[in-house]
Amino acid sequence: MHKPLKPFAAVENIYTPRQRTVLLVSSLIGLAALMVVGLAQYLTAFLAAGILFVVFRPWWVALVHRRRWNHRLVTIGILLVTVVVLVVPFYALSSLLLERLVAFAKNPEQMLDALHKLERATGLNITQQLNVRQLLVQGAARVSGWLPSLASSALNFLVVVGLMLFTMYYLFMQETYFLLGLHRYLPFRNDTLEELGVSLKNNVNANVLGQVLVALVQSILTGITLWIFAVPDPLFWGVVAFFMAFLPVLGTPLVWGPAALYQFSQGHNGQAIGILLVGFIVIINVDNLLRIVLAKRMGNIHPLVTLVGLVLGVEIFGLIGLVMGPLLVSYFLLLMEVFRRENRRAREEEAT
């Protein structure tokens, strides 16, 4: 009996081995780009999962690898901590701010009354120059237009959080395979991968743990300042200042600045001036000093890398860019150093 012939065995492939390699790599890059574009809406979930994996991994190593605790229970505990410490407070604060924004939108007369009092206190004619009533009406219409989309926004938030927690679960449960996969598929030497890992850890320490400490100090200072100068509800606005402190450049002035204007509008000029003095002299300088010191101490990150990275990251990734931005700049500088080192090694090999 005759053996069946393979129909394509005798067909000559038109590509050389080098061309096939180039086309294979190009196909992989193209497919990866399509996947990134398709998941762009939820990319922050995967980035946040990776960052939290680095944040909680020391706990994981201490409890699972050293004390031999059950890895599934430790993973579930880390997920619960993430939900209780990060997700619930963020969602609750967003809801409270939205409720107050809707209340202002429905009652613009309260803000107009405060502006009239501010005019009488400062002698400036604000309402006619800015046509504030028209702006408030437009703002009320805009906020009212947001209300129908709240359900879909909440659903999108739940999807992002679910993807983040799901990704974190498998990163911890399959930690060994994940780390081996990085060493196997990333196109870097082992020493370069170790340097990239150290850079990631330093950036997370400086821009997550350090930033949390900076935000906590600023929120405490803001809350105490508002309490001393008799601003209503200082505890709530102190909590708001904690989250606002994560925003570069703007930050806590978005809280104590309007508080000072409110005191001006109520005729409490001394208290308003006190808030401004404490804000500009104490709170802002503490922010700048702590950011630089903690970035250098906790992660050995140059202050210029942190500053450029914050501006770049927030523009591209939003709030999570507070970590991703400095990480991108650090990786760029590190890969430039790797490129220089590899070229020097190649020249030395050619010389010998």
Automatic annotation (TrEMBL):
Protein name (Swiss-Prot/TrEMBL): AI-2E family transporter
Keyword Thylakoid assigned: no
InterPro entries listed in its UniProt record: AI-2E-like
Keyword Transmembrane helix: yes
Mode of membrane association: Multi-pass membrane protein
Organism phylogeny: Bacteria, Pseudomonadati, Bacteroidota, Cytophagia, Cytophagales
Segments traversing the membrane: 21-40, 46-64, 76-98, 154-172, 208-229, 235-261, 273-294, 306-335
Domain of life per record: Bacteria
Pfam family, one: AI-2E_transport
Segment forming the signal sequence: none
Sequence similarity: Belongs to the autoinducer-2 exporter (AI-2E) (TC 2.A.86) family.
Main location: membrane
Subcellular location: Membrane
Keywords, in A-Z order: Membrane, Transmembrane, Transmembrane helix
